[in-house]
Amino acid sequence: MKLTFLGTGTSTGVPTIGCQCAVCTSPATHDKRTRPSIMLEYSGRIIVIDTTPDFRTQALRQKIQRVDAVVFTHAHADHVLGLDDVRPFFFRQKDPIPIFADQRCMESLRRIFTYIFDQTYPYGGILKVEPHLIDGPFSLWDVQLVPLQVLHGALPILGFRFGNAAYVTDFSTIPETTLGLLQGLNVLILDALRHKPHPTHSTIENSLALVEHLKPKRAYFTHIAHELSHHETNASLPPNVRLAYDGLEVDLD
Q: Three-state SS for 32?
């Protein structure tokens, strides 16, 4: 299994519109971050976790040729508004694209993309999806995805464990019951917005403490704001912890 970071930025992306800070004006490629998403590739299948407003750009950049399923963490704009850009894959593959979300997220998707779910647009050209509610672990082509309940401020959302790797973005608190599901990992991906505390996101310091507690072999931080320079921040992190960057590929086998 290969994991690719499609996007590693916070909800506004980096550069942030109108900002002239050192990171937003940096020429460094790794300081340019689209909205947060990952892609899993295995057994000839491609699974995307979250379709950001930048999904079209991400798919073109990574030369994605198919999408077999989309899994959602939650329904905030920076995680779902690119769903319509899955259309070309439906046109090519012919079958409805399976999507997976918890009930709260699925209800929001139905509200945001009414035309997709209702299929009442008379002129065609609409994405067709096959909705599946997440209410526990589920399998996609022989790989089990275990939903991880976390809190994004007061909002319950999902992370996911797949094999010996886990993706937990947009969290401020991880309940004890979920921490128990994050033991024995080779790769742990965590939200780490910035150094300054935030009411709905983890900080570098908080995520480092979680890495120390959970002891994965490797950890990557994502959902990164423009307060963090890629090069300078990486220089301050332990050797087994790195800031992720757009396009980074990680072998999970």
A: coil
The pairing of strands 69-71 and 45-49 is parallel
Q: Pick from 45, 63, 111: which is nearest to 83 by CA? A: 111
Q: What pTM value is reported for the model?
A: 0.96
User: Alpha helix (H) ranges present in 27-76?
Assistant: 55-62
Strands 97-101 and 241-243: unpaired
* Alpha helices (runs of H) in 94-160, residue ranges in sequence order: 103-112, 114-118
- Model pLDDT for residues 157-192, shown as the tens digit of each residue: 999 999 999 999 999 999 999 999 999 999 999 999
Q: What angle do CA 11, 133, 109 make, to 5 degrees?
A: 40
Q: Answer yes or no: CATH 3.60.15.10 is held by domain 2-246.
A: yes
**Cβ-proximal residues to 55 (8 Å cutoff; 6+ apart), any chain:** 6, 37, 48, 82, 83, 85, 86
